[in-house]
């Protein structure tokens, strides 16, 4: 297993390299000039050239790329053109907010999606099954910007139970930074006020985001469960008098989860990337909002940094998925 | 029996799962009730409190360094945190004393001498003296980013004594005084040198901190969430608002709800189509004033379709448009047709200038006179402004009636800027607003043929006589004389029609009725005179 992890990590390095290459050259094909954004559109040619020079944008693209990659090895993601701060530092600020939102949404999706899928399979073609289908399909086909607004309208506007935007109330100090995840940090430091407040802020964005992923998980669990339930060994087990729920959880669900994991892994990846819309609606200070602002500013270093982090995230999730296979079914070889 | 138990377990699992969610919901709801202090506090210290103001803006700030930023969103923060030698006076575009109590200009216009007021201090406690002023301008020139374009005219700054600052200009530049009142004229504490990294003159530090002598200072910036201003303890003024929050809420509906519930006091991001609903809210008023923000179409007069070289064709385009209908359809009527290139509210505006009216027959006959038929033109625009789509379609329909076929080319904003810079269009939608209060911002930028491209003359218009007039107007100090010269130039360019002068937008801002003392200055759009406001 150690060997497999090592191999995969080396692969990851090449993936990251490929990603930098593609994104770097793609983003330099886009017409437009980040120096122009910085100096304002009425700037004279001379100032423009000067700033281009300062930012190294007057170098040939491959030289710029080489400089960038050289920086990467030193852990330097470059300086953001828009914020004038190191990109690594900016992402360090925004990344935990996105992760926290995605993780909680993921948790919600699992907690609701797996039982719902099991229920659908066991109660195939009954009202339960149809109800679960309608519920989950509604989630995947409702655009997040709409369901998010409805959530805000109901829970903030009418009921007043939850705040509509932000990570914490403006007068509550965030917990001391350990991981950057407010929930975790406030638990670790015993800061209950911050814990409650951040959970209270996280709730509707996370539910909104998870609802969009629910259908995928529910449908996958249902399909795999049906397949497993129809197999010989389940019938044998039944014949041997192993009772329903035990059989269901110990044998059927365990086996049904193996194909589900791939889908779940991908679903977490898309939660990360798909958080952009959710972050906009709920004014959630995550990477999504950061990268959208960066794109409109043609802030190459920031766009690159974001893409790199996300692609490495995807690759790591894939690795975790494979490891999970391994744990669930040792027969699968790396 | 077995299947019964099994069913039961399934249902239990499902219920458990659901309560895991709603349990949190109940818990959070309970939090809300059990700890009312938390929520009431929020309301108490933010919008509800008499001494604090919450402004909702749509995007986070980039750099706040006055020597770097050319993004007027940054003004929101820098204007109340820095002071300038001169300031815009109330709601007018005239300047009044700021850090400087008076000033003199030499007859040749090249030497400006300012005498500083006493008693102004930076938030860090240092006094604002002539050295600080000199340091600020030297810093801008050394950093050489955006603002250097405006202040590049400065040859040298001297500080003969603590109260006197002398600027020597390379050439006479009458708008100089007005430029000092703009954002980049904000005087920075020389202590910023302590925060220098790799010789950046403190750029990285000032990108996210303020070091000015304004009534406020930036005390907290939660990236992506909000910026918080608190009082500068050393300022001579004592504003009523002790705290100002600038909260980032991109979504207009979320802004509207929070405004309705009193969680924010000013909502910047509500589009004009939704203002009707907002004005019906009992706790909200809508500030409406004419702005200096204009919406125009560039007619590419030298690099576009050859037919556009003929002024008659350009006039025909200007006659083909129903100005009132456009203002109504894209701005819900909250806009006024322009009269000449200098908008109403800025000195130099000519209230008697010729205005094109909607006259399709005249447009057709002008086209016939020019000998042009079956003219097909490309109109370039982007999604930068939400109303451009409708505006483009409306123009297409009106020009169509006059016999000009308009192809709509919608491109990305970055691409549009690039195309404007290269002159790669026939017609193109554009907006403009002045950085400083001088007709120079319109006449010299738009019409001087040395400014071809994105930097100003986006119609690629060249007329030697106009060049002469606007250049002369930019080199004499007498305002009356400048006004005459600009007026002459205006008559020519209106007649030659290199731009379709569509409309100047109204400034519309939903503000809580609790807020008092907000003064709108067209030069300071999106900037609040927080030091004079109260609740």
From TrEMBL, chain A:
It is found in: Cell membrane. PROSITE patterns: ABC_TM1. It is a multi-pass membrane protein. The keyword Nucleotide-binding does not apply. Signal peptide: none annotated. Belongs to the binding-protein-dependent transport system permease family. It comes from the Bacteria. Residues 95-325 form the ABC transmembrane type-1 domain. Pfam families: BPD_transp_1, BPD_transp_1_N. Its main location: membrane. The chain crosses the membrane at residues 9-30, 101-122, 134-159, 198-217, 256-282, 302-328. GO terms for cellular component: plasma membrane. Keywords: Cell membrane, Membrane, Transmembrane, Transmembrane helix, Transport. GO terms for molecular function: dipeptide transmembrane transporter activity. This is Peptide ABC transporter permease. Gene3D superfamilies: MetI-like (1.10.3720.10). InterPro entries: BPD_transp_1_N, MetI-like, MetI-like_sf.
From TrEMBL, chain B:
Keywords: Signal. GO terms for molecular function: peptide transmembrane transporter activity. Residues 27-47 are annotated as: Disordered. Residues 94-452 form the Solute-binding protein family domain. Transmembrane segments: none annotated. One of its GO terms (biological process) is dipeptide transport. It comes from the Bacteria. One of its GO terms (cellular component) is ATP-binding cassette (ABC) transporter complex. Residues 1-26 form the signal peptide. InterPro entries: Peptide/Ni-bd (IPR030678), SBP_5 (IPR039424), SBP_5_dom (IPR000914). This is Peptide ABC transporter substrate-binding protein.
């Amino acid at each position: 297993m150690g060997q497999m992890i090592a191999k995969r990590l080396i692969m990851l390095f090449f993936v990251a390299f490929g990603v930098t290459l593609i994104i770097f050259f793609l983003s330099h094909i886009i017409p437009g000039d980040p120096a122009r954004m910085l100096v304002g559109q009425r700037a004279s040619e001379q100032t423009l050239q000067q700033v281009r020079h300062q930012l190294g944008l007057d170098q040939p693209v491959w030289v710029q790329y080489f400089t960038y990659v050289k920086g990467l090895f030193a852990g330097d993601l470059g300086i953001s053109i828009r914020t004038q701060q190191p990109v690594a530092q900016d992402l360090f600020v925004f990344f935990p907010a996105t992760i926290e939102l995605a993780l909680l949404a993921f948790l919600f999706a699992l907690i609701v999606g797996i039982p719902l899928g099991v229920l659908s399979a066991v109660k195939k073609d009954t009202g339960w099954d149809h109800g679960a289908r309608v519920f989950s399909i509604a989630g995947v086909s409702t655009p997040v910007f709409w369901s998010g607004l409805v959530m805000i309208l109901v829970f903030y506007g009418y009921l007043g139970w939850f705040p509509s935007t932000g990570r914490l109330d403006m007068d509550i100090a965030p917990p001391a930074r350990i991981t950057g995840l407010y929930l975790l940090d406030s638990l670790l430091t015993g800061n209950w006020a911050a814990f409650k407040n951040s959970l209270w802020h996280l709730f509707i964005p996370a539910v909104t985001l998870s609802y969009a992923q629910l259908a995928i998980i529910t449908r996958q669990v249902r399909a795999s469960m049906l397949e497993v339930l129809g197999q010989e060994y389940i019938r044998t087990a039944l014949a041997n008098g192993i009772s329903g729920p035990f059989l269901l959880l110990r044998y059927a669900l365990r086996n049904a989860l193996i194909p589900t994991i791939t889908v779940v892994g991908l679903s977490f990846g898309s939660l990360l990337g798909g958080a952009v819309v959710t972050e906009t609606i709920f004014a959630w200070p995550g990477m999504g909002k950061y990268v959208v602002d960066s794109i409109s500013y043609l802030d190459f270093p920031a766009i690159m940094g974001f893409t790199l982090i996300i692609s490495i995230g995807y690759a790591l999730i894939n690795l975790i998925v494979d490891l999970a296979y391994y744990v669930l079914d040792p027969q699968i070889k790396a | 029996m077995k299947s019964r138990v099994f069913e039961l377990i399934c249902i239990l699992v499902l219920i458990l799962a659901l309560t895991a969610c709603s349990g949190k919901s109940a818990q959070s709801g309970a939090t809300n009730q059990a700890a009312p202090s938390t929520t009431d506090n929020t309301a108490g210290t933010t919008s509800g409190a008499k001494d604090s103001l919450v402004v909702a803006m749509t995007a986070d700030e980039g750099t706040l360094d006055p020597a770097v930023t050319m993004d007027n969103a940054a003004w929101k923060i820098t204007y109340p945190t820095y002071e300038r030698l001169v300031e815009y006076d109330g709601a007018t575009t005239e300047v009044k004393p700021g850090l400087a109590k008076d000033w003199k200009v030499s007859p040749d216009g090249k030497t400006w001498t300012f005498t500083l007021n006493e008693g102004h201090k930076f938030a860090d406690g240092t006094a604002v003296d002539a050295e600080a002023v000199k340091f600020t301008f030297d810093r801008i020139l050394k950093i050489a980013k955006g603002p250097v374009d405006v202040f590049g005219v400065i040859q040298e700054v001297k500080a003969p004594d603590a109260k006197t600052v002398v600027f020597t200009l390379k050439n006479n530049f009458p708008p100089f005084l007005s430029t000092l009142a703009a954002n980049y004229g904000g005087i920075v504490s020389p202590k910023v040198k302590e925060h220098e990294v790799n010789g950046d003159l403190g750029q990285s530090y000032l990108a996210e901190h303020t070091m000015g002598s304004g009534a406020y200072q930036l005390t907290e910036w939660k990236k992506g969430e909000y910026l918080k201003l608190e009082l500068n303890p050393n300022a001579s003024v004592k504003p009523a608002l002790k705290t100002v929050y600038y909260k980032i809420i991109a979504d207009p509906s979320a802004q509207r709800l929070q405004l309705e519930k009193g969680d924010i006091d000013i909502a910047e991001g509500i589009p004009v189509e939704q203002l009707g609903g907002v004005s019906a809210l009992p706790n909200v008023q809508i500030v409406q004033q004419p702005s200096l923000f204009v919406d125009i179409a560039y007619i590419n007069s030298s690099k576009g379709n050859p037919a556009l070289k003929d002024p008659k064709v350009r006039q025909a385009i200007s006659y083909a448009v129903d100005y009132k209908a456009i203002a109504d359809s894209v701005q819900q009527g909250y806009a006024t047709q322009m009269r000449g290139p200098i908008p109403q509210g800025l000195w130099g505006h000519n209230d008697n200038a010729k205005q094109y009216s909607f006259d399709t027959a005249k447009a057709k006959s002008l086209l016939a006179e020019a000998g042009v038929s079956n003219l097909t033109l490309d109109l370039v625009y982007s999604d930068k402004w939400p109303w451009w789509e409708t505006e483009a379609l409306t123009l297409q329909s009106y020009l169509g009636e006059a016999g000009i076929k308009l192809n709509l080319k919608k491109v990305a904003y970055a691409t549009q800027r690039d195309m404007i810079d290269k002159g790669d269009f026939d017609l193109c939608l554009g907006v403009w607003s002045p950085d400083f209060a001088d007709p120079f911002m319109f006449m010299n930028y738009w019409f001087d043929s040395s400014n071809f491209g994105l930097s100003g003359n986006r119609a690629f218009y060249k007329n030697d006589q106009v060049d002469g007039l606007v250049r002369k107007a930019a080199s004499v100090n007498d305002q009356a004389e400048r006004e005459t010269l600009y007026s002459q130039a205006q008559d020519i360019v209106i007649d030659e029609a290199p731009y379709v002068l569509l409309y100047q937008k109204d400034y519309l801002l939903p503000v809580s009725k609790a807020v008092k003392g907000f003064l709108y200055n067209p030069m300071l759009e999106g900037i609040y005179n927080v030091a004079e406001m109260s609740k």
